[in-house]
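Entry 12.
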Amino acid sequence: MGPTLSFARGLRGRGAGGRGVARHALLRIPRPRHRDRYSDLDIEVWVRDDMGTQISGKLRQVLGWLGPVSFSYPRGEGFVTGFVGDGWQRVDLYLKRLADFAPSPDYSEARVVKDTDGVLTRLVAESPREHGAPTLEEARAVIEEAIDSQVYLALHNARGAAWSALGEVSYQLTRAYTLLAQVRGRHSYGLRYVSAFPHPDRRTLLSTPHS
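Predicted 3D structure (tokens):
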């Protein structure tokens, strides 16, 4: 039995009705072209509003619905990353209250695992597929910092601090790529899906003389 099926059964058996932890959950999954056997699971569970500080204490319990937990560590209130099952499936698990949910491109292709009254189903249906473009101020901030960074890393190179300069290059490259993706309505998650930068088409465009 895979982790997702195991979790769904755990949600039905231990989270449903009464004073259980939750009755609603959705699974955020990468888009098909980015999904493979190495993908982690992003699971968000809607918990009762009256749980208060109990949320963090329930994380490992809910994580266990996916299978035996080999390792886990807290990432903040209501958020844990763990590895479950024989294959050490990586899981990001969030326990959220209803007020924490809002339509987002991150939910546009989510799979609803359990939803007793259609709230999460509507959330997925109302979520836009693409992220909005950055504002002019946001784009300006990235570009201005990149200009400053070029001077900064040149000074580091001059004093022989090559490793520090290399770190600056990779950081600014990630920010520039993320900005370009945002302009195209994409959320790139840094350089996660990059195979070539810039894209061959963009490289040709940049090398074409302009009168």
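Annotation: Confidence is low (pLDDT under 50) at residues 15-19. The chain has two domains: 3-126, 136-207.
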